[in-house]
Structures are given as structure tokens and as C-alpha cells.
Amino acid sequence: MNALNNELREGIAAIERDGLRRRRRTLDAPCGPLASVDGRELTSFCSNDYLGLANDPALIEALRDGARRWGVGSGASHLVSGHIAPHEALERRLAAFSGFDRALLMTTGYMANLGIVPALVGRGDAIFADRLNHASLIDAVRLSRADSKRYPHADLSTLERMLAESDAKHKLILTDAVFSMDGDIAPLPALLELAERFNAWLVVDDAHGFGVLGPQGRGSLAHFGLPCAERLIYMATLGKAAGAAGAFVAASDSVIEWLLQRARTYIFTTGSSPAIACALLASLDLIEQGNDRRTRLRQLAKQLANGLAGTRWKLAVSPTAIQPVIVGSNHDALRIASALYEKGLWVPAIRPPTVPDGTARLRVSLSASHTEAHVAALVNALRELAQ
Fold it and tell me: Which of 78, 149, 208, 374 is an active site residue?
């Protein structure tokens, strides 16, 4: 065991040396624009609470009332006895909200992706995945045992060629809708056209678009005005813009029934808290009525871009709440993040393998709960550091 532990220690030392070690900080405050860490108050640009709903009084009240009525835990998997009335109500509401026939509530987005992909394809089939897809999608491909084809980010010509050359029995195109470290949006209309032409499934992970993009925050498909085609499978998370926890898959009736029968991460896990489902029903009301919050997000993103214009900081082009400042080296990104932290500004440094080598960055996550003063403080600090 000593030799095994020594091997782990050497590996951790190598991670430290390469500037890739991750560390947790414990917050002593609810999720919001202001964080309390180790007795310090910081302005946080870390969370994915894009609409500022994680600590909203309406969600807190719905959660409290839900717990009093339905308890805290579900006690079993959904297919045994853990599917409680608030879960059913939430699934129906999510289906209507996203425009699909049915929705299936999942524990997390990661678990949803690990369930969807292997349920649809396997040995002898082929998956065509954007190279910048989230880790959960990468792991889902590995778990499926299907032939993996990765195309350069948003490269439709290469994807088209790959699809044309494939003789796989079943084909599946797999993509993030909003790429979590860049903030750009996948070319979903063109991807759907390719899926139609080559008779492929199109699975879209809208973790960072749901609630933020589209009319009434209905997500990236609505942003493009895309129909809810039968070959489309839509996944979105509920712990980001929705402010709570969980995820859902929306699709045709036959797809959802198949996933209910075959998605192992749905079948073999305990159902989520019914109280959380109650909070999410309240969240959907606020998302639907949240145009002012989404307008504020766009205004803050514009303020940040204008404030950094003319500096050495390269702000990636992003129409979303994710605003990455590309730095380059791992150690430089850590150094700048540390300098910001000392100024009371918490911005995470994102490094490989989360992003490609040489593209370490500061991932600025904006929230509708931020103020113009918060963003101005970040702009001023970055301008100082640029000198």
C-alpha cells in the first residue's frame, strides 16, 4: 500500500508542477454575487446561476412548502416507488415548456448524458461528436462502445464528410448547445439538417442555454426557432439558470419511453427530492417571466466587452453569460486569478484538460444578480493587471 500511495503522491506532485491542481474553497454564504470565503467577502464570477434564482425567495418558499407536504427524500428509484406527484407535474411542465411530447427527470446532467447515449447506440453504431463537447458527453461515448468520430469544433464540412463515409447501422450526432468554456453556440439548424439527410439522431446538451436563450428562456432550440423533430433529443440541466438541481431529457414519446426502459442511470438510481421538484416548478414560472433578467445579462456582457476593449485581454466572442478571457499558459492564468482574488474578485482559472493546451483562461460567469458596479470592479482590475 505504501508503494501505491507513493505513486499517487508523485502523480499529485506532477499535477501541481504543471499548474493543473484543483482546490476547493468552502463558502460561508448562499450562492449569489457576493461570496464569503475564509472570512473574506468576494464578488463571485464563478457560478452558473445565470438568472440569479439559486437564492430567490420564491424558490425557497416553494422548497419549504414542498418539504412540508412531500418530505425530503423520495425513498426509491422512480420505477419502484420514488416517482412522486411533484416529479410527474414537473415532467409534464418541462415537456410543455420545451415543446416536446414528453420529458424525463434525471438526477444530474452528467447522469442524463451517461444514460441517453448508450441507450440509443452501441457496438456497430457510430457517434459524431464535437471535439469541444463536455466531459459527460465524452464519457457517454466511451460507455456506449459505439465507434467514436470526433469532428473539429463546429466544422460542418468535416462532419458531413464523416457522415457520408460511415456505413454504421445507427448514427448519432452529439453536441453541446452552448459550449461551457467558450460560450459560443453550436450551429444547431445545420446539425439538424445533416441529421435529417443522413438519418441520424441529434442529441443536444443545453446545460448552459436553458433559461438563458430563446423566447421565455426556452433554450437553444427555441433560440433558432427549430421544430421539435422526432430525431431530436434535448437535454438540459436544472442546477444552472433554473437555480436548483437535476436535469431532464425531452423528446418524442417513443424516445422517452425507450429511455425510461433502457437508460441505466435513470433506472438504477434513487429519485430526486420531491421538494426540489416543487422548487423547480416555481423556477419555471420565473424563467418564463424572466425577460428582464435575460436583458440584464446581455447588458452586463456588453459592459464587460466594452470595458476590456483595447487591452491585451482577448475576450472570446460569446452571446451568452459565459465570457472567457483567454490567457494562454496555465501558470499565467493561475497568477492572474490569484491577483484578482487578492482584489476581492473571484474568477476561476480554467486549464487543461477542461480546455485545449495553450488556451488556459479566466471563465467569467455573469449573473442577472450582478450589478454594473460588480462588473466595473472586474474591468478596472483586469485593466490594471494588463499593464
Answer: 208
